[in-house]
Write the structure tokens for this entry.
Amino acid sequence: MQRVAELSKEHALRARSEAIAFVIMACVLIVAPVFAYPVFLMKALCFALFACAFNLLIGYVGLLSFGHALFFGWASYISAHAAKVWGFPPELAILSGAVGAAGLGTIVGALAIRRQGIYFAMITLALAQMMYFFAVQAPFTHGEDGIQAVPRGKLFGFIDLADQTNMYVTVLVIFLGCFLLIYRIINSPFGEVLKAIRENEPRAISLGYRSERYKLVAFVLSATFAGVAGATKALVFQLASLTDVDWPISGEVILMTLVGGLGTLFGPVVGAFFMVTLENYLTTIGQWVFVVQGVIFVICVLLFRRGIIGELAHVLRVKL
Amino acid sequence: MFELFGISSQALFGQLLIGLINGSFYALLSLGLAVIFGMLNIINFTHGAQYMLGAFTAYFLLQYAGLGYWWAIVLAPLLVGITGIVIERLFLQWLYKLDHLYGLLLTFGLALILEGTFRNFFGSSGQPYSVPPALQGGQNLGFMFLPNYRAWVVVFSLAVCLTTWFVIERTKLGSYLRAATENPALVRAFGINVPRMITLTYGFGVALAALAGVMAAPVYNVSPQMGANLIIVVFAVVVIGGMGSIMGAILTGFGLGLIEGLTKVFFPEASNTVIFIIMAIVLLIRPAGLFGRGA
């Protein structure tokens, strides 16, 4: 009984630290446009959501996907196409991107979870590369040009997204909404089973959980959120291009999550802002960006495996 | 020359030969990956960059030291192998007790560093590397024209693959290696220096990649991103074959190269994706891979 009381007390403390951190994050993001360029912030928010989606898989199920650019990039193509060619309003364009990513996630996930560990990473990478080649060849993606001049449209028919402030608020609402949803998933009974699978899969199976199904659902959820991020980015930049489906983006989202802290709630957000800011300053140095990314990978893996938020949480002795 | 299904025999066999050449690179690279994974429990993402490094070493040897192809084919694997040993000592040895994924991430980072550096100096255009004089020209076989150099690549890679297989499966050194893969602690107890064996294994696997790079230099140009796309295909080859068997890696590599060549003739749109499609089918039918021993 005492143990149960301790546990629930611990849980309450953890929920409090996370709630405080969430409020701080939301406040910072609300006032941020005063200090920083909105398009930069929106880019960072899209990548932050993308990294949170990726983290759902690696941080809570222990699956390393090396092909998440597939969902991000294809969702951006689908939403750009829906908005430009079919004339969908922005909310439906993003929704169709998300649905497309969920569909792709179901197929890729069903194939990839047939193998474990390191093979999982190689399979997702290979399938993403296959879909990259489809994107190069398919006529509706317009190859090297990409889908340009995507209209942002009017949200729900009356909020004009061509206005930068409206667009920023929309992106912020999408980001915070998805973030809370991911938080809810992680802390639901379903999320507890995912963590059990991460810790000890044979044991979870022996307790009667069909780990394959849980992994597949987690994969589809992760792909869907990545899709929302990609679809939103297509509207923000009014562009869907090959860059977003190519493997360097898959590597980048891994790096963002790693820098921020694998398996932490806020780590991916901090990591995404860190990397996007860094790349913003490094645009002038051309190909050295890859070298800098590589060096950060090596440093993180060898010396800094907890990541920024992981270290912070360790120092403050709270869960973040 | 004759025609088959409306395709000239030259086109068909020419593509099959290209397929075999690609297949020999797949075989050499997946062999190296399998050997490294067996001993180090690390998937070496740097493998593609090290293949590129092999080709560039050959190029540098020619440009700055005046040493031609035959020197390069000996020296480049040796030099790149030594850099591999340095990498293992500096970085990889700290990761053996951690989750597999950290090894993949670290070697991915190293690949970014290597490829980014070369791209910075050489752009994305390729540097030409000429076929050695002794292997220029070719034979007319009646149904196709066979360039000597391409025949050499296929025969020589096959010989290297088979030698590697022989050493690992049939010699005493190989039996140590296999034993250390199964149970390193026990092999150490017998007085064998396992950490040194691990270091040398990594150096050897890397040298194989560099060797493939040297052989690729005259066929394709020497360019910074020559390894980046190749390594992803090789990962698919490894998933298809499974890393349990050396002979399996060799057969899968050559076989998939041939299939890719055939696809280029009959259905060129799919030639980039056919290996990934085969991977998906294999995952559906035999999840452990064609030669795998379980996941």
The interface with chain A takes residues 37, 43, 91, 94-95, 98, 100-102, 104-106, 108-117, 119-120, 228-229, 232-233, 235-236, 238-239, 269, 272-273, 276-277, 279-280, 283-284, 287-288, 295 of chain B (CB under 8 Å). Chain B is about 70% helix and 5% strand. Residues 33 and 159 of chain B are 18 Å apart (CA to CA). Chain B has one domain: 6-285.
